[in-house]
Amino acid sequence: MASVLNLLKYCCKICENRCALLRLGALGLLLETARRAFSADAMEPAEGILLIVESLTMEANESDISIAQSVFTTTNEEAGAGEEARKIVLMFLERLCHPSGAKKSNKQQRNEEMVARILPYLTYGEPAAMEALIQHFEPYLRDWTEFDQLQKQHEEDPKDESISQKVSTQRSAVDNFVRVSESLKTSSCGERLKEIILEKGITKAAVEHVKQSFASPGQTGFRTSAEWTSGLKLPSIPPILSMLKGLAKGHLPTQKCIDEEGILPLLHALEGVPGENEIGARAENLLDTLANKENNGDGFLGEKIQELRHATRDEMRRRALMKREMLLQVTLVVSSAAMFVIL
């Protein structure tokens, strides 16, 4: 089995081979085999199968090969392609929802990350499958204040099994959705998923939470305020920034939503924040994504972001110059005093 999977993995490096495998119905067979490997906790073959599935699903979404031909040839049911795609998505979502009490091995963790990455491709643009995917994560993406409160309760009482279980489930769902959002491409399937996420208010809820968690950058001394300091400690901010980066990439409506909420100055202030939770780096990556044009009419925020960054650089230069002038004046005073003493 290991040799066969390695052979298929190398075959999938060539586009013609991927198309041939899709026409032979290999994807449907591999998905069923992956399901069996998961049910038997056979992590090693499951990892090899998922690597091939990831390669084939990307090709299936980008090629003109019939989805029914490439995926559903192994089924004998009379259900349509949409229902079959929905069942496949639910099967892999179930894999992400296994009991979280047990400690995961490295291979289990890698497999879950891979499953989350390929989930958008497994919808094949079918509305029923996309709806099932988003409905699974939606309950965990509505109330970010509750997310933060639950994390705080767990920190205060880590021995409470009930809270610990809820935190683990919630954190896992959020992390997996971040992986899903980051894997969304600028394809028709990715565009539609982003539109549904936006229509359901998930994007706006995340943006509003970021906005409400910090003092306004326009206020004097906002960086030293208690609100700013507490906002930087919220566990919800890092995953939200990464999620927005994935959703905004190449998607004009999402970029407009972020702009209309007026959080660009806040994101710019955050990108200068150091720290282990990577808020600064994630905010910078989000702004770079918003400023980058993907040839789809997006990237219109590039000029605004450039102006914010230039203004900050100019202010830093001005302050540095003032500091040098003050030091020079102090030096001159000290020198004059020394000369006076000598005389």
Calculate Rg over CA atoms: 26 Å
* Major sheet attributes: none
Provide the domain count. 2
Mean pLDDT reading: 83
Structural class: mainly alpha
Oligomer: single chain
The separation of the N and C termini measures 94 Å
Portion of residues in beta strands equals under 5%
SSE inventory with pairings:
Layout: H1 2-11, H2 15-23, H3 26-39, H4 43-62, H5 67-71, H6 81-96, H7 106-122, H8 127-137, H9 144-156, H10 161-183, H11 188-199, H12 202-212, H13 226-232, H14 237-248, H15 252-260, H16 264-270, H17 279-291, H18 302-342
Plain-language structure description:
The protein is an all-alpha fold and 343 residues long. The protein has two domains: 1-97 and 108-139 and 161-199, no CATH class; 201-343. It is 73% helix and 0% strand. The protein contains 18 helices and no strands. The protein has helices at residues 2-11, 15-23, 26-39, 43-62, 67-71, 81-96, 106-122, 127-137, 144-156, 161-183, 188-199, 202-212, 226-232, 237-248, 252-260, 264-270, 279-291, 302-342. The relative contact order is 0.06.
Please give a quick description of this structure:
Helices cover 73% and strands 0% of the residues.
Keywords:
18 helices, mainly alpha, 343 residues
